[in-house]
Design brief:
heterodimer; A: mainly alpha; elongated; B: mainly alpha; 3 domains; flat
């Protein structure tokens, strides 16, 4: 195989897949046509073999080619690369790759800052989601008497507006995190600190949503909005957990799934603003 | 994926979804009217099912549901029912304080729509004990009510919030302090077997005593079914209900009981 097509770093993987009789899944076929490899960049091969245009640092959008250029110019330490290219100054998950590129790779796994906090918030988020989908909608009030009842929180329009806008504001704050990568203004906290803030704020938003809905899934547009928000939160919690796992193992599969969960998290965010806008608009329009 | 593509895709999704929803919200075409179902925050009550997607029948943009929308359709019926909780009662300053408990000037206070989980009988969406918000002291005025459950005002069949015409209040208040049954009782008890004099009762019948005309040729199973039924056991024979036909096709009136007027 190699004699006909030349150097092919993934040849061993292809050979193994052929031997084990794996099928080429539709997205792998597509990926093969686009990038020449059925697997996402970096999921199997060493970063030194990645194509020049492959992104090493997703946060700052730094390619392997650019890093190579910097190394050729003498910036051949992780710190120098960080300083010069900004690679690794976002979430920091590519620092081991930078170490490999500069030839300073060690077998020590980088410590994930705030790992225990991230584990806790991700676990709480998953627990809240599990609670939301498994506990049936809270029963309506059985009495019209008495001054105030906790059920007013999800039955009374005023309280619902309060919890709704709180969840809205918290989601907005959580979104600031994505700006951390692009705006220097936010860089006076480290990325891992922002990540913790992001998850705490996300969990709070989830709590307000649970109160807002009384654990009911609603109907039509409301239901679509809620499911989108729940899936978004779930993928956020999963990617949080995988970040922690990444700090314990160098397994590229974890990096791959963490990436997938992260992109799912981003993807589900896209329809959220417009759905939310119409949810709020129609609450007053009708 | 480059950042620019990401932002553009997100923008495109927003524009597409937003465009569709805006069209559904404001356009007046039949397609838009059907698409408007996506905004339903819950099904309407059964009574409003047919106008569920005619949003403007009840809603005015950014004004909620004006009281007029309800009255336009239901006003005449309320007038006919002599609504005992009509608005004019609460425009009286002496009763106005009651509005603090429940704002009864607005139909939607008790008849919320699109809240299927709250709906009780007659499209009411407040708990059954809502009467006690204002009538908590009912036992003072009507001692007979002192042991009544707070949730049974309507469900026991006595009261209807809007229409109390079925209750003859003058009669009730005139006899309120009398015993439930006069002594001696002036009316017989509602028990047919006790009213019916034993001597007038008929003896149970069996297959051999049936009086169907010979022409009828009834199958034994059918005869047996009659004999063991309440009719056979209560002495009700064929001719008590059926008229036989003569050979010529005319009705045999020889067995006829006294003719009805």
């Amino acid at each position: 195989m190699g004699s006909r097509i030349g150097e092919w770093p993934e040849a061993w993987r292809i050979r193994e897949a052929v031997l084990e009789g794996h099928r080429l899944l539709p997205w792998q076929a597509r990926s093969f046509l686009v990038s020449g490899s059925p697997w996402p960049e970096g999921s199997g091969t060493s970063v030194t073999n990645w194509p020049k245009q492959a992104l090493v640092c997703n946060c700052m959008g730094v390619t392997r080619g650019l890093l190579e250029l910097a190394i050729e110019q003498g910036y051949n330490s992780v710190d120098a690369l960080k300083e010069q290219t900004k690679a690794g100054t976002g979430c920091g998950s590519c620092l081991p790759l930078l170490a490999i590129l500069t030839g300073n790779a060690t077998n020590t796994i980088p410590v994930v800052e705030g790992a225990s906090k991230l584990t806790k918030t991700s676990a709480i988020a998953m627990l809240l989601l599990l609670l939301s989908v498994s506990v049936p909608a809270l029963a309506p009030l059985d009495t019209a008497l008495g001054d105030w009842n906790i059920a007013n929180l999800w039955l009374n329009s005023g309280w619902q507006q309060f919890s709704g806008y709180c969840a809205f504001a918290l989601s907005g704050i959580a979104m600031i995190m994505s700006l951390r990568k692009h705006w220097n203004f936010f860089s006076h906290f480290s990325y891992p600190t922002w990540r913790i803030i992001h998850t705490i704020v996300g969990v709070l938003a989830l709590l307000f949503i649970m109160v807002h809905t009384g654990l009911a899934f609603g109907y039509n547009l409301d239901r679509i909005l809620l499911i989108d928000f729940f899936l978004l939160s779930l993928l956020g919690a999963i990617s949080g957990s995988l970040v922690v796992l990444e700090g314990r193992s160098n397994n590229p599969i974890i990096r791959y799934f963490r990436n997938m969960a992260f992109w799912g998290h981003v993807l589900l965010l896209w329809p959220l603003p417009v759905l939310l806008a119409f949810h709020i608009l129609t609450s007053y329009y009708f | 994926m480059p950042n620019k593509t990401l932002w553009l895709t997100a923008l495109l999704i927003t524009l597409l979804v937003g465009g569709y929803l805006t069209y559904a919200l404001v356009a007046d075409t039949p397609i838009a009217m059907n698409a408007r179902a996506v905004f339903l925050p819950g099904n309407t009550t059964r009574g409003h099912y047919q106008i569920e997607l005619a949003c403007s029948a009840c809603h005015k943009p950014f004004q909620g549901t004006p009281q007029k929308a309800c009255v336009n359709c239901h006003g005449a019926a309320l007038k006919q029912a002599e609504d005992v909780h009509a608005n004019h009662k609460f425009n009286d300053p002496r009763n106005a304080a009651m509005l603090l408990h429940i704002n009864v000037l607005q139909c939607v206070t008790c008849h919320r729509e699109h809240k299927p989980e709250l709906v009780r009988g007659m499209g009411v969406t407040v708990p059954d004990d809502f009467c006690f918000s204002c009538h908590a002291d009912i036992a003072k005025e009507r001692p007979s009510h002192k042991d009544f459950d707070q949730k049974t005002c309507a469900s026991a069949g006595c009261h209807n919030y809007h229409d109390e015409k079925a209750l003859y209040e003058d009669f009730l208040s005139a006899h309120l302090h009398e015993p439930d049954i006069k002594q001696p009782a002036l009316l017989a008890q509602h028990n047919l077997s006790e009213q019916h004099i034993a001597a007038d009762r008929k003896n149970p019948l069996n297959e051999s005593l049936q009086d169907a005309p010979a022409l009828a040729q009834l199958p034994p199973a059918q005869l047996n079914a009659w004999a063991v039924s309440a009719h056979g056991q209560g002495g009700i024979n064929c001719s008590d209900c059926h008229q036989a036909k003569l050979a010529g096709g005319q009705t045999d009136r020889s067995l006829e009981k006294s003719a009805r007027p």
